[in-house]
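Summary for the steering committee. The consortium agreed at its last meeting that each partner would contribute one worked example illustrating the joint modelling workflow. Our contribution is presented below. We chose a case with several input lines so that the handling of multiple components could be demonstrated. No manual editing was applied between input and output; the record is shown as generated.
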Amino acid sequence: MSINEEPTKLKPTDYASDQEVRWCPGCGDYAILNAVKKTLADKQAKKENTVFVSGIGCSSRLPYYMATYGFHTIHGRAPAFAAGIKITNPELDVWVITGDGDALSIGGNHFIHLLRKNLNCQVLLFNNEIYGLTKGQASPASRTGTISPSTPGGSLEAPISACELALSSGGTFIARGVDTAIKQLVPTLSKAQEHLGTSLVEIYQNCIVYNDDVFKSFTDKSVALEKQIHLEHGEPMLFGENNKKGLSINKDYSGLEVIDLELNEKDISRVLIHDYTNKTIANLLTQMDQNSMPVALGIIYCVEKPTLDQYYTEKLNKHKNEISNIMEKGQTWTI
Amino acid sequence: MDGNSSEIEKNNIEENWSTTVRFAGDSGDGMQLTGGRLTFEAAISGMGLATFPDYPAEIRAPAGTTFGVSSFQVRFGEGLIASSGDHADILVAMNPAALKVNIKEVLPGGLLILDSSSFNDRGIKKAGYEENPMENNSLAGLQIISADISNLTIEAVKEFGLGNKDGLRCRNMWTLGLILWLFTKEISETVDWLENKFGKDSILTKANVAALNAGHTYAENSEISSDILRKVVPKSTPKKGKWRAITGAESLAFGLATGAIKSKLNMTLCSYPITPASPIMHYLANYELKGISIYQAEDEIAACCSAIGVSYAGGLGVTSSSGPGISLKTEAIGLAVSVELPLIIINSQRAGPSTGLPTRAEQSDLMQAIYGRHGEAPLVVLAPKSPSDCFEIAQKAIYISIKYMTPVMILSDAYLTNASEPWLIPDISKIKDNSVSFGEYHENYMPFERNPDTLARKWVKPGTKGMEHRIGGLEKDSISGNISYDPENHQKMTNLRAKKIQNIQKEFNKIEIIGPDKGDLLVIGWGSTNGPISEARELLTNKGYTISHSQISCLWPISDSLKVIASKFKSVIVIEMNDGQLFNLLKVDTIPNAKSLTQVSGKPFRVSHLIDEFKNIIELGN
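What follows is the complete predicted structure of the assembly.
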């Protein structure tokens, strides 16, 4: 196909490269790949201006499957590559593809600094709570007690929460989605792309081989309504069948609690209205215990702050000096 | 033992006039500044010169202790001045600790300038002396000017309302005044400089000028014993043009910027603070040059990865560090080799292993530079031989990196970084353009198609329509760049990567030899050993010895011609500040009978040491 024959309207499949996808059959990554392609098609994103940068792991193979620019780098470091790319060409739309091991363990430092520096890019964190590509060891996101080849007696450590970490690192856009819930995931990705700054989207992704059904307790169709809350900015935090449940601050102000509106309809006044600029509530939403509370999905937190690329562009625009003048600055002597 | 200057023996070799002055004091005493001023005074006389700042890793260790002593050595004179001097003719010691640390560097008959007021019981004890060294004959054989510099300075600046503490800060200017008198120099240049620095009417200017004047007058009024001779600095006539002093770090910064400008690329130096490499980042940050920026990354690894990201996006990525940081960058450098992108890596080598001696020079990262990555991951390794040469090497590195789509590592060291020498400011407009041609749209683009001459793949930056492609660290098909696990393809790619680098030999068409191209002895060195080797060679040549010298700029790929060149000499010796890394590399098949002279003390070679070694080899005929 020559450059001039490119169809005017790009379909999701136009964003697919000619490479055969090599994930395990049934892997949640397929669904995410489709959501990404659909998001790009919805936006008619220019392929030449789109760059996927990844680290190492199953998720990090994604760039190979996209017909855009792609850079499969080294373990945990994709954010650092993204920084170099964006300060050189802020016009590029950069997507960092990472996993829970890649972003939260080996690349933890880059992850927090990317958020702190607020580089204008999207970070899609495929969280399957396990090391897939190295055959199933416990990851920093694994729940305590996870049995794996490296933790045959069950893991001892407490898991890290990506969104909580992102908030405390100064993240300006923090969202969550579920791999197979494309309907919710696509608009979230779309908003992430539009956000000026680092947009973190944590995507619960099922690893069918090493950690199958780990998210079943809230993603299974039979419980999804009761165990998920889809946040909408400006809307009350309602969930459950017929939206008969709501979230409110608990009595001792230490966290959130579920209010059953079927017991008392008047309690609707206590239900929180989602304001995604409220960091305190965002924190509480990321801290909810999955056993007793629903899982918060959608955009949890979103504020505007200057971006690193902005700062760089402005700074560089102010650089006007010529090298020959600088060389002659200071003390010179003529012979 | 407190160190004894009589250990030092002079070589019985006639030298051109040169003198070495060492300033030593507490880190806060302003010794680097005072040394810098004397350097400038020597420079405007047209002298050749070399400086050597020597400072501890601690920023402000407790005052008066030996581990807090910072010093600055400057050597200037006629003829070839390529090293900062084996020993000092003059030592300025602002306190007993400075004397104790540096006395062993002073030549017999040398001159000591001491602040007598600091030689009180407290100061003497703090320095770890049992008794006052000025009173126990331990300084016998040396000339001494002992003045109450502290009180004389306070007295001189009193009228400007400076208290004792601020007044004492002018001690270095008082001392400089005295030194300038010793070298028959007036103070006017320094007065101009102070006025420029602090403003004409500033109290600081007035106080410093008063101190400077007081030191100069003190000396003039012959309170200095008459047998201390003033040194008349002869006039020298170097090349015409505009000159300045330059350190290796500044020279690298200028060279990188010039290389980027001539390539019409935006450049970003991505770095993480580390001694002694940080000055390069500071200089570039402060220059505010068009299209040139720095990025301070969260760690060493990120710095290297960001630099690769810069190159990937179509800029010039540079990362700069020292040994510990280079170790951390290693994996990322391997990726740059694998994806074949331009990248400049600067290693300002310091003494290792581990944290080692952060402010001292060593050349012990050579093997790491050449081989220190997992897998077969060849890249180009270049070494500048002097502060001025850093400017040339940086540009050469950029030229090669872009032309061959390869990382290039520059091996500088802590000595080169801080040492300075006079530099004829180049006319930038006369430097050739080297504009990059990025890959534009064409049909059937294959990311790993190569230029048949250079074996370089095309540099296609994101944003180029119709050329979208993927690269990564997995092995790639030799043409399409798609992931390939094919054994034959891997062999082919390994060979191609090696061949591409070997090809770069032709960019250095001739190994430069100083001296005849055959004879008794060929001395091979690399990097900052150039100074002492050159001087030793020149002194011995003047005495009738036949010595040739080659300072290797390109350490990888090693030129095939070196083998032929070396075969024409009876003996070959490899000089380096490590345990013999280049020697080991060369003896495998290039120069099997080479000898090795090494030193791993964190200090540069002494010229006298090299002279002895070279004479021995020639006279013993082996």
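Chain B has 20 helices and 20 strands. Residues 1-14 of chain B have pLDDT under 50 and may be disordered.
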